Amino acid sequence: MNLVAFTGALELGLLYSIMALGVYLTFRVLNFPDLTVDGSFTTGGAIAAVMIASGQSPLLATVAAFAGGVAAGAITGLLHTKGKINALLSGILMMIALYSVNLRIMGKANVPLLGIDTLFTGMQVLLVMPLVVLAVKLLLDWFLHTDLGLSIRATGDNDRMVRSFGVNTDTTTIIGVSLSNGLVALSGALVSQQQGFAEVQMGVGMIVIGLASVIIGEAIFGAKNVFRATLAVALGAIVYRVIVAAAMRWGLNPQDMKLMTSMIVVIALVLPRIQSAFRKKAMIRKRSAELQTASPAQGSHQGGNQ
């Protein structure tokens, strides 16, 4: 892989790391299987692109994109908590609904931003995005250590216990899913500005990419505490993009990229279980050997005493 491809992978990894932090919030912290991500990512890109194309400030458009993602996540949370719809089904329904909403926002399937000033106009993505990702990561770390953040974490660990302490788990779930989709939409807004367009299909498969980033990051860098987990997720998004860029460089057909992403997630999920099973069998064999070695020695000792 040459320097240009590696630099491009780093840029994409940084842009998508904010989306991965949003997926981490629902997948790991809240234990909520949220498929809204595929729709809310496009929502962020669509809102930002339409506002920038109509002459609005790129910064205002990015903030509005975040707010749009928060609103989408809030509806998913309400469907699950107040509508008593299964969490997975709530996300699927919202994802499907957002496809039409995104088309309404854009008015067409593609909104170009060529020749229009965006957040990255006159800036180097590799110089700006590390600071943006670091700021988002530290803000998320801080939030997860506040009383509300601790309640959200506790809801994901054991919602029944949290309810017994008087915490409204419906509220914590709605806030958690809303914040997650806000981050996802923020990532979508930044990606659309970096690539120079937003299109209605740009969010397809985004949940799998987010999961791959979370799992790869945790497997490589560990997740013993919140600070380390969020850092691992952000770095995991970069590692994932570098892997994809290397695979493309080595001849992978672009139409197989989704298949490769799914395979990475499957391997990352299954491999630790296989390793754990092998370690358990090795420990059993070791203990059996120790018992077999100890039994004759104990028998001869007892015989000597007689």
Short description:
InterPro entries: ABC_transp_permease. The protein is mainly α and 306 residues long.
Describe the structure.
Helix 2 packs parallel to helix 4. A two-stranded antiparallel ribbon has the order 1-2. The termini are far apart. It has helices spanning 3-29, 37-53, 58-81, 87-106, 125-144, 147-157, 159-164, 169-195, 206-221, 226-249, 257-305; strands at 110-112, 197-199. The chain is an all-alpha fold and 306 residues long. The longest helix is centred in the C-terminal third of the chain and has 49 residues, at 257-305.
Can you give keywords for this protein?
2 strands, membrane, mainly alpha, single chain, transmembrane helix, cell membrane, 306 residues, 2% strand, two-stranded antiparallel sheet, ABC transporter permease
